[in-house]
Protein 1
Amino acid sequence: DVKVTQSSRYLVKRTGEKVFLECVQDMDHENMFWYRQDPGLGLRLIYFSYDVKMKEKGDIPEGYSVSREKKERFSLILESASTNQTSMYLCASSSPGQGYQQPQHFGDGTRLSIL
Amino acid sequence: GQNIDQPTEMTATEGAIVQINCTYQTSGFNGLFWYQQHAGEAPTFLSYNVLDGLEEKGRFSSFLSRSKGYSYLLLKELQMKDSASYLCAALDSNYQLIWGAGTKLIIKP
């Protein structure tokens, strides 16, 4: 089974702090994604990566950056945390599709609170 | 713009059948996913449809009509453990997933 592991289930940080969220997958997937999930809204894509050292902006990249130095690890960075970044953050990975699109596999999420 | 619509919440009875609808408007279309998400847990993959028609997987079935921009997830013989949110997501022409807000399904005994 695919395992996507996020470093923390719950995290509390202060406004202005630099915050690192880590995600590791064990299935040698090329594609990795960071989403945030808020009540009443669909999953919103922050950043994604299709290869090591490659990154692409999603729909809501402002205030965030990412790092992918190794294939299995994709880190999300909040440069200067703000209260509106309080949310559930979900990491996902997938293989490239060929005809049939491979599903994304998700980690358990990090519930981040910014005080 | 791109948009996915699904009901916010549905209630059904244990042992019954429920149909969760999803309509989508995307720039191009490369298939539709359904995911299940229990409270506080990760979304898990249920189904993927790219061709018109019904695909059955045990108690769960998923239907797609590309011409109508419409899909549904059908859950039979409902069990209490089916209480969860069900997320619909369409793959657009750039192979980006557009997500609905999810349908919270409440199962009553």
Protein 2
Amino acid sequence: DQQVKQNSPSLSVQEGRISILNCDYTNSMFDYFLWYKKYPAEGPTFLISISSIKDKNEDGRFTVFLNKSAKHLSLHIVPSQPGDSAVYFCAASAQVWGAQKLVFGQGTRLTINP
Amino acid sequence: GAGVSQSPSNKVTEKGKDVELRCDPISGHTALYWYRQSLGQGLEFLIYFQGNSAPDKSGLPSDRFSAERTGGSVSTLTIQRTQQEDSAVYLCASSVAGGLGGGELFFGEGSRLTVL
């Protein structure tokens, strides 16, 4: 039962363009969402998060959008840079669980082409 | 250290042997988590510690898996009688406190386990 789904295993974008990574979830209890970035042979690193009381959160080149009715969130990276090439994981959790048990998606490998 | 430290970084073992994986969280972080990533899969939650207690063990895949944390710091994940399906990267993470609202997890580089 995959509660958090990233349906695109890979994405290729030209440098300078916008990268859009998508994530869908099924559990309506989720109320906190995060994106993590992972380089090879390294642990994931936190990128940006959003609470369900918001529909948008922006941090520099990174913006996360949340559509609660559609149970969908997306990460926009603009402009895309070669250093953004990595695997991106979407994650979700619920305050009522009382612990930060994150449920992760399968990841999307983003490749930025020069 | 500055970050989450895990050892060994790589472990190759024979089926049926026991293995121990160690995690040293960021100093002062009270919450500690174990995840694993199997080939082609996302990160799978295993267990969560708040201090030395484990309020959530729901992700441990079988009774061959156990974990402990002592002194509110170092944690050890033990896999007994390893099976080939246990092969994965085991990731440890810590956070300032269990709970959400900006308390993102800081991950170590992982321990890659290969069971032959």
Protein 3
Amino acid sequence: GDSVTQMEGPVTLSEEAFLTINCTYTATGYPSLFWYVQYPGEGLQLLLKATKADDKGSNKGFEATYRKETTSFHLEKGSVQVSDSAVYFCARGGSNYKLTFGKGTLLTVNP
Amino acid sequence: DTAVSQTPKYLVTQMGNDKSIKCEQNLGHDTMYWYKQDSKKFLKIMFSYNNKELIINETVPNRFSPKSPDKAHLNLHINSLELGDSAVYFCASSQEWLAGGSTDTQYFGPGTRLTVL
């Protein structure tokens, strides 16, 4: 079935450090891929998405490229801020009408 | 304007009670969802309705019953609450399916933290 594997956390970085959170997905079909972010005490919100191979999603300095050859959608940011501290979820759409989420990666950015 | 709203935000109750969580979306979306997030932040789909019709029903105890009175509302009723039901429950909505049936962006409510004592 559909699945998403993302890097286990927690990840702790200093402000202005480079961030990568790895995500790979099962290759069934041609899914849309998403990164969602959950700030403390809040619901999930879409961070970025890509709907086809080689698409790059970007938002708020975060980027992820849909790589069909490696079935990956890694999240990157060049310089993290304290306000980026949150849980990040990678997700794939599926032909069975649902999103499948990874287990989430907790990011803590220290000043 | 709140896009997806849930009430209540917090719900504390005793084992064995029956409770409901309400969800409303004002985005004009056709599809709504319920998710359960456990203490380790793992997010699992429970139900989905498209135009008031049930389309996803994961392996969820039948004590959980969704009700969709119209496209904008999807409520979750839980009978005979158990300790293991303690979690955060999220409602979400999306507009349509993308090509190939892949779901479009889902918009999440703020969550309802259910604590069963």
